[in-house]
Amino acid sequence: MCRSIKTLRPPSLPEEATEEDVRAAALQYVRKVSGFRAPAAHNREVFDRAVDAVALATQELLDDLVVRGQK
Questions:
Q1: How many angstroms separate the CA atoms of 12 and 42, rounded?
Q2: Residue 40 three-state SS
């Protein structure tokens, strides 16, 4: 149904995850959980809100993680 979500923290990514990386991961997560690749028009708003919420939570997680051995 959808591609795998990639790890967004170092050292899996050589550089910091971009907003686009975070958004793509959030979209893939919501697609997988909802079972919809693209929602019907009557579900578009709730689908988009879910992607926004997951992207925000993901960015907060990445911002607060402490990875040993990384500067």
A1: 37
A2: coil
Residue 30 burial (CB < 10 Å; 0-12/13-18/19+)?
buried
Closest by alpha carbon to 8, among 41, 16, 40, 39?
16
Read off the DSSP letter of residue 12.
Answer: T
What pLDDT, in 10s, does the model give residues 9-47? 877 877 889 999 999 999 999 999 999 999 999 999 999
Pairwise CA distance, residues 24 & 47, whole Å: 14
Q: Contact at 8 Å (CB) between 62 and 9?
A: yes
